[in-house]
Amino acid sequence: MSEKVYGIDLGTTYSAIARINDLDQAEIIRNTEGDFTTPSTAYFEESGNVVIGKQAKQVLVTDPDNGVALIKRHMGTEHPVEYRGTTYTPESISALILREIVNAANVETGEAIDKVVITVPAYFGIQEREATKQAGEIAGLDVVGVVTEPVAAALSIGIGSQETQTLFVYDLGGGTFDTTIMKVGGGKVEVVAIDGNRMLGGADWDQALIDMIAEKFIAQAGLGDDDPRYDEGFLGELRRDAEQTKQSLTKRDSATVRCRYGAADEQIVITRAEFEEATKHLVDQTIEICRRATALAESKDPGLSVDKFLLVGGSSRMPMVAAALSEQLGLTPIPTDYDLAVAKGAAIYGQTAVDEVLSTDGEAPADSAGGALVDAKPKLYLGGATTLQVSNVISKALGVHFSRDENDTVGYISFIAHSNETIPMTAATIDAATLVDNQTSVTLAIYEQRGEKESEDPGSNELLKSVELSVPALPKNSPIAIDFSVTAEGLVRCKITDPASGRCEEIEVQTSVLSADAVAAAKAQVSGLSLRS
User: Fold this and answer.
1) pLDDT in tens, 277-296
2) Would the pTM count as exceeding 0.85?
3) Quick one: which of 170, 239, 176 has its CA closest to 210?
4) Which DSSP state fits 315?
5) What is the CA 324 to chain-centroid distance, rounded?
6) How far apart are CA 297 and CA 317, in angstroms?
7) 277, 82, 340, 290: which is closest to 177 by C-alpha?
8) Three-state DSSP class for 175?
9) Strand partners, 531
10) Upstream peptide bond of 424 is cis (omega within 30 degrees of 0)
11) Is it the case that residue 85 has pLDDT exceeding 70?
């Protein structure tokens, strides 16, 4: 076997790391405390040390101002955070988490591996995916690939069977929710449809439980208008207790929480029925997303039927999830490793990459000369398949900014690639034109869909990148050609050409809010910090 690679599920609330072991099987590597998962939490000590994981999570209860959780929800956005007088980006915080769990894995295994594959939610856009890759680079890791969580989960279940099955993956993590419908079998994964909400996850169930416990406590203790949630110490303890209560209600019909505030000391009883009623609207959101994904998949592949419905993500353990899926969609969910399936699948994906038997364009992998891999051997970690072929779709629509005439100062977005379109793809050449006489430059701006639906309004989309082409003075309505493509990895390539002069400008859009210099600075910042878990 070639060199090894780690698969990392960089989760919103918990992260896990896996590898392909000497038995050619995917296995989770325990952290320094012997746990399979590590809280995605960082705490900054006065000494300059950074604590990652369970201890950081515990300290945040009493000192929330010097640490952070749920940072994944801000990946790919401008969201600076400051601790102990130093400012960090979401990518830098994620890099600290990545660095510590890889260091712990190297200690646990006695190896020194820096090659990794990191997972992302299927509904992450270009900026979020690139930000995740940059987090790995800031951590000093060689990121050999980024794979979506549902595809990784499918790989962990096995794709060696020659019979192609249609899987529906329901992935409810701590901070994000995804659905993916894919065809799997014979060493192939073909994604048919995806949908999701990057701001919906188990943390929202926790918040609902926090409010329920607090309101019961206020009423039971007779606190009136005195809301203890404004007290950071009380709120920190309540967050910890709410997560534990949610886990208890997965197995029991009721749970008791002790709340203390001032002279008040009460035992608060929460029933599973109360919790499910208070969070029904959250489950309903996931059901609606499942319906959208199903309708889209059926429109792309009429007659498509789901063979297996898989539950992934720790929050999928809640009994209300399986019950709602059965009652409202008529589906019988199959439990998986929940918290561990994604990391295992990432390790499988990564090993196929370094073993050079992976193709991400849906075609059979080729050797370095472009020929077929005639000597590829069966891989146990692929369920006996020899190669892995992954065909994916883009998560969000991509478009170009146009103006209707010279007086149109706002313009509109014309979408060239639509969400759930199979990649790689190449759009037909767009025939545009100059707006005014003697125009000497043309601007090309690429946007990505921001909301759930496509909108022509530029303000409702995310500017990814723009380039300006200088041209000889052109008369109004002179032709300008735009060529647009998306690679199998989601890299957008665009070329703008002035047919008259033959001049052209090409841009590649794989961008984050961090520039190359910012990544280098963040890498230096992170490497200078001492970590422990």
Assistant:
1) 999 999 999 999 999 999 99
2) yes
3) 239
4) G
5) 24
6) 26
7) 290
8) coil
9) 50
10) yes
11) yes
Cα 90-191-427 angle, rounded to 5 deg? 85
> What residues contact 240, with CB distance under 8 A and at least 6 apart?
57, 58, 61
**pLDDT score recorded for residue 335:** 82
**Residues 6 or more apart whose Cβ sits within 8 Å of residue 284:** 324
Confidence class of residue 268 from pLDDT cuts 50, 70 and 90?
Answer: very high
CATH architecture of the domain 202-278 equals Alpha-Beta Complex (3.90)
Q: CA 466 to CA 507: how far, in whole Å?
A: 8
Given its phi and psi angles, is residue 330 left (phi above 0), alpha (psi -120 to 50 degrees) or beta? left
By C-alpha distance, which of 358, 398, 421, 390 is closest to 508? 398
Of 219, 7, 197, the residue nearest 102 (C-alpha) = 7
Return the closest-CA partner of residue 194 out of 156, 133, 150: 150
- C-alpha to C-alpha distance for 284 and 324, rounded to whole angstroms: 8
Could you tell me the two tokens for 303? Answer: 């007659």
Which residue's entry shows tokens 């709120």?
Answer: 235
Amino acid residing at 325: L
pLDDT score, position 266: 95
CA distance 431 to 312: 45
Q: How far is CA 291 from the centre of its chain?
A: 21
- Kindly indicate whether the domain formed by 398-502 is annotated with CATH number 1.10.10.10: no
**Amino acid at position 401, single letter:** H
Phi, psi of 14 (to 5 degrees): -140, 145
- pLDDT band of 161, cuts 50, 70, 90: confident
Confidence of residue 1 (pLDDT cuts 50, 70, 90): very low
| CA 304 to each of CA 186, 294, 505: distance values in angstroms, whole numbers, following the listed order | 18, 9, 42
Out of 3.20.20.330, 3.30.420.40, 3.20.20.140, 3.30.70.260, which CATH number does the structure's domain 6-200+297-393+523-527 have?
Answer: 3.30.420.40
Residue 287 burial class via C-beta count within 10 angstroms: exposed 0-12, middle 13-18, buried 19 and up: middle
Identify the CA nearest to 419 among candidates 165, 193, 207, 257: 193
Q: Decide if 383 contacts 158 (C-beta within 8 A).
A: yes
Write phi, then psi, for 313 (nearest 5 degrees): 95, 140
Does 6-200+297-393+523-527 match 202-278 in CATH topology?
A: no
Contact between residue 114 and residue 139 where contact means Cβ atoms under 8 Å apart: no
**At 451, is the pLDDT very low, low, confident or very high (cuts 50, 70, 90)?**
confident
The per-residue pLDDT for 402 is 93
Cα distance between residue 230 and residue 275, in whole Å: 23
How is the chain split among helix, strand and coil, in percent rounded to 5? 35, 30, 35
pLDDT digit string, tens, across residues 421-446: 998 999 889 899 999 999 998 888 99
**Domain extent listing, the chain:** 6-200+297-393+523-527, 202-278, 398-502
**Residue 426: both structure tokens together:** 């190449």
245-259 confidence digits (pLDDT tens): 999 999 999 999 999
